[in-house]
Structures are given as structure tokens and as C-alpha cells.
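note to self: dont lose this again. the chain is below, predicted strucutre after it. 240 aa total, dont forget to put it in the shared folder this time
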Amino acid sequence: MIFLYVVAGAIAIIAILLANRKYMHWLMERRVTDYQNELVTRHCNEVENIYKQMRGWRHDYHNHIQLLKAYLAQKQFTEVDEYLSRLDTDLTQVDTILKTGNIMIDAILNSKVSLAQSKQIAVSAKAIVPKALQVQPVDLCVIIGNLLDNAIEACSKISEEEMRFIRVYIGVHKELLYISVSNASAGEIKKTGKTYLTTKSTAFHGFGLMRIDKIVEKYQGFVDRDHDDGVFATEVMLPL
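---
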């Protein structure tokens, strides 16, 4: 009889453990779904921000044309030349369109750069992505998107606008796809052992960093994070 009780108790414990494991798996799947939905919403807002800028330029373009016509009607050619020079300078300053050759990466890069600039963050970016990639574009967008989200979050906490900056470089180095993102940071960076912790206050605390690490591990790549003298830097290398 005691043996039967022991067996029944063991079966009950196993059943509870299996149910708990199933629940944890469901909970993780739910968190992944919620996280992806948050990313989609965020990216839609960022694309909308780009279109707002484009509509603003369309409106300004009409005003520029009218003024130039007025100068020409009065044969004020010197004023026309000076005005065109100023427009060319302004256009160079706002022209942040990055063209890597990969549509998905172009979209995520340009939306993040536009978002950063809307928050008065100076951005320096250069990206060259080879046509032949082992890494899936979706995975690459997750890495780049999370890296830039973290950089924008860190810079937004710096009160002095002139101190905010983000530097992005994507290219090929020794048969590896090299991704480097560095940004200004203020305050203490949380770290457990060799692992840095995100400073975000969202429900997905640390989830972005986990996603980056998982994807890098998936492709047997390498990720390195470092913090020194008010600058936080992340380097990711993925096999081509």
C-alpha cells in the first residue's frame, strides 16, 4: 500500500512538472508574440515619421520654387545662386538615406536614423552589405533594430543634446559581416559578470539583448560589448 502511495505521489509530481513546463513554454511564446507586436508597432511609427518629413519637404519645395521664380522675374540672379547654394547645403545635412542594396536592412536603418534625429541625436552611419549573406535578412534586422533601439534609449537619457551621438558601421572584415554600434551613455551601466543589462523600463526588459545573443549563437558568430568613458559599444561579427 505504501508503495502505491509513493508511486501515485511520484506520478502527481511528474504531472505537475510537465504542466509547469508546458505553462512556461506557453508564457515564453506569448512574450515572444507580444515583443514582436511591439516591434511592428514601433517600426510603423518610425516609417510614419519618415513620411511626415517627406510631406514637409514637399510643402517646402513649393515655397522654394515660388521664391526662385520671384527672383528670376526680377532678374536677381545673384540671389538665385545664393539661395540654391543654401538649399544644397540644407539638403546635404538632412540627406541620411542609406542604401545598402538590401531593402529590409535599408528600411530598418533609415527608420532608426530618422527616429534618432527626431530626438536630437547626432548620427554618423555607413553601411555596406554584401549581396550573398548566410544570415537571414529578418535576423539581421532584429540585430540592427535592437542595437539602435538601445542606443537611442541611452542617448535620450542625456539632457545635454550636444552630447548625444550614435555611430553605426556595417561592412565586411576578414570574411565576416561586421556590425558596430556605439553611442553616448550617461550614468552607471548595469552588468552581471560579463553580461550587460538593458536600462529599458518596458515589460520586455532584457529581451532585445537576449534576441541578439540567440541570433549570433545561431550563426556561430561573436558579440562583444564594452563601456568606457561615457561610450557604450557593441560589435557583432557573423560568418558570410
